[in-house]
Amino acid sequence: MSAFYQDFKLGVLGGGQLGRMMIQSAIDFNIDIHVLDPDANAPCKNIATTFRQGQLTDFDTVYDFGKDCDLITIEIENVNTDALIKLQSEGKKVYPQPEVIRLIQNKTVQKKFYINNHIPTAAFVETENLAEVKKNAHFLPFVNKLATEGYDGRGVQVIRTEDDLDKGFDRPGFVEKLVDFEKEISVIVARNEANEVTTFPTVEMVFHPEKNLVEYLFSPASISTEIEAEAQRIAKETITKLDMIGLLAIEMFVTKDGKVLVNEMAPRTHNSGHQTIEGNVTSQFEQHLRAILNMPLGDTEVIIPSAMVNLLGEDGYTGLAKYEGLEEVLKVDGVHVHLYGKKLTKPFRKMGHVTITDQDTSRLKEKVKFVKDHLKIIA
């Protein structure tokens, strides 16, 4: 481990807010972070040890960047896995492994992985185009998902009736039976080279009604001990069957008849783990570093009940960001504001998040409402 304090170079593909918060944890370990991102003004630009602008999907760009690093990791899945496989074959460590990233990049392949490994998930039918989506009208209501390039709610279309079928995608993907769920939950699990596996307690998520991305969440989730045990079991089984090194976030449904079904997974730090910075003994960002560097995994225990509210750009505003109501929110006990270094706002852009802590869950919910009602990002 002494190498981590000397000339060790950790390369990160992606320079967004997840990379920014990873760097904040890496500073505690004296780890130098080198970042590649296509955005010249990415959130990591001014705090990384070195920053390089370049396309994450370009083979030569990723390969040239990675060959100068001792270990390469990601903060976004949309990267060139062929370049990572070549780097891996030449002796570079790449965590999560390129094969895992490639599997998760394709949501259809993800679904097949769940089925083949007996991991509970909603029924689905693979489709190549809109015509095939329409042929599955008997499957309604369903969700049409693109196989690739969908994120933060993009590439997902809920179709409830035959009148809505024209909203489907004319590209490869699948239709998935619409789940009648009670709650949406998430478990973050980590695994290192020593095959140590640790999960964070399950969190409960509430999604934005229009944009299909997390609006806020509560930790720990308000679920039965049986549901908690099942969610934790599924998370550990999934990362083990993937043989993955790193951090894996798994979003799940709790159905109204008490079943737990996997929705999607991400091989990286995740929006559903931001509250761990203040709410847990070890944050997800530190745990990610511990996992990929084969350090002992950290204690994930909840210190205090917490919530996380995403700060999204208000609809109808584009331009230099203005944080309306920030002073009022900062007066509230247990409120921790995390801004992502993005100067420009646009509708529903993730500009930051607020972690809220309180021993009393009723007060916690009141504080969440106060933050949502008062802190607005306009231009």
Would you kindly provide a written description of the structure presented here, covering whatever features stand out?
There is one protein chain. By secondary structure, this protein is of the alpha+beta class. The chain contains eleven helices and 22 strands. Strands 10, 11, 12, 13, 14, 15, 16, 19 and 21 form a nine-stranded antiparallel beta sheet that branches. A five-stranded parallel beta sheet has the order 3-2-1-4-5, with helices on both faces. A four-stranded antiparallel beta sheet has the order 6-9-7-8. Strand 10 and strand 11 form a beta hairpin.
CATH class of the largest domain: Alpha Beta
CATH topology of the largest domain: D-amino Acid Aminotransferase, Chain A, domain 1
What is the count of helical runs? 11
**Tally of discrete structural domains:** 3
List keywords for this structure.
single chain; 379 residues; Rossmann fold; alpha+beta; Dna Ligase, domain 1; D-amino Acid Aminotransferase, Chain A, domain 1
Topology readout:
Elements: E1 9-13, H1 17-26, E2 32-37, E3 50-53, H2 59-66, E4 71-74, H3 81-89, E5 93-94, H4 98-105, H5 107-116, E6 124-127, H6 130-135, E7 142-146, E8 156-159, E9 173-177, E10 181-191, E11 197-199, E12 203-207, E13 214-219, H7 225-242, E14 246-255, E15 260-266, H8 276-279, H9 284-292, E16 306-312, E17 319-320, E18 322-324, H10 326-330, E19 335-339, E20 344-345, E21 350-357, H11 361-374, E22 376-378
Parallel strand pairs: 1-2, 1-4, 2-3, 4-5
Antiparallel strand pairs: 6-9, 7-8, 7-9, 10-11, 10-12, 10-14, 12-13, 13-16, 14-15, 16-21, 17-20, 18-22, 19-21
Helix pairs in contact: 1-9, 2-3, 3-4
